[in-house]
Amino acid sequence: MPKSVESKIRSSLGLIRFMQTTLPIPFASRMLKRSMDHVSFGSSFRRESISADGVRCEWIISEGAQTDRVLFYLHGGGFVFGLTPLHLPMAAYLGQQIGTRVLMVDYRLAPDHPFPAALDDCVKVYLWLLEQGYSAKNIVIAGDSAGGNLVVTSMLKLRDDGIALPAAAACLSPVTNLAEKRNPNENFKDPLLPKKAMKYYTESYVRGCDARDPLISPVFGELGGLPPILVHVGEDEVLREDAVQLVARAQECSVDATLKVFPRMWHVWQLFMQLPQAKQSLDEIRKFLRSDLD
C-alpha cells in the first residue's frame, strides 16, 4: 500500500530535526535566504519587498485582494531563523482566502538581536501600517511558533501603549512559556523540535532577561482587553502545553479564546500545504479571521 501524504511528510521530519542540531545557524540562514529568491506563486500573486520604518517586510498581494485590509503575519523560527520558503505559500494562501493583502515582518533575529528586538520590530511595523492609513479594525494578525509568541506579546505592548488592536488573532503552535521546562512523558519525542535546539533558541532570545516577563512568556501576563484569539496546536508536539496554557490564561482574563488540538499533527504542520490537515487548519483560521473583519 502506498504511503499516505501524512506518512511521507512525517518520515522526512527527522532530517529537519537533524539539521537544527548540526548546521551552524549562519550557514542555515544563508541557505534559507537564497532559497527565498526562488519562491514563486504564479501570476495571481504579486510579491514586494519593502522597508516599513526601517524594518524589512514582504508584501504578498493576490488578485482581487481588498486594498484596505491586511493580514499581518509574524513568522516562526525559534527567534533565530528568518522567513522560509514554506512560510510564503502558507501566508499567501491565507491572505487569498481571507481576501486581504499580507504583510510579513522579517524582524531582527537572536542571538545577535535578543529580546526585545523582534518584539520592537513587530510593534514598529504595526504602527507603520496605521500611519499608512490602515484601520486597526481592518487588520488581523497571525503567526506560528515564535511568531505566535510575537502575536500575543505585540498586542500586549500595543494595548499597554493605548494603541488600537487588530480585529482578531490566530496562533499556530505558539511558544508562550519560555520560563519553565517542559516535562512530557519520558518516552515522548517531538517529531520536529529537538530539546537541544529548543534550549538554544530560548537562551538566544531571552539572553539574561526575566523569562517570566509577560512580553517574553505571555502566559504570565494580564491578557484582558485582547481581541478574539484562535489557537491551533498539534497533538504530537512538545509545545502543546504552551497552547493550552495560553488559552486557559486568556479565558481567565475574559478574552474570547479558542483552542483546537489536531490529532497526530506536529509543530506548525500547516507549512506542509500538501497535507489535508494543513488545509483544514488554514481554512478554519481563514473563517475565524474573516468573520472578525466582516
Can you walk me through this structure?
With 294 residues, this protein is of the alpha/beta class. Helices cover 39% and strands 18% of the residues. The chain has 8 helices and 8 strands; from the N terminus they run ααβββαβαβαβαβαβα. The chain has helices at 5-22, 25-36, 87-98, 117-131, 146-160, 195-206, 240-252, 276-293, and strands at 45-52, 55-62, 66-74, 100-105, 139-144, 168-172, 229-234, 257-262. The chain has an 8-stranded mixed beta sheet, with helices on both faces. α3 (87-98) links the parallel β3 (66-74) and β4 (100-105). It is globular.
Number of domains: 1
Structural class by helix and strand composition? alpha/beta
End-to-end separation: 45 Å
Question: What radius of gyration results from the CA coordinates?
Answer: 18 Å
Helix proportion:
25-40%
Largest sheet: 8 strands, mixed
**CATH H level: which superfamily?**
Alpha/Beta hydrolase fold, catalytic domain
Taken as a percent bin, the fraction of beta residues is 15-25%
Look at the structure and give the CATH class: Alpha Beta
The strand line-up of the biggest sheet is: 1-2-4-3-5-6-7-8
Any idea of the CATH topology?
Answer: Rossmann fold
Query: So what's the overall shape?
Result: globular
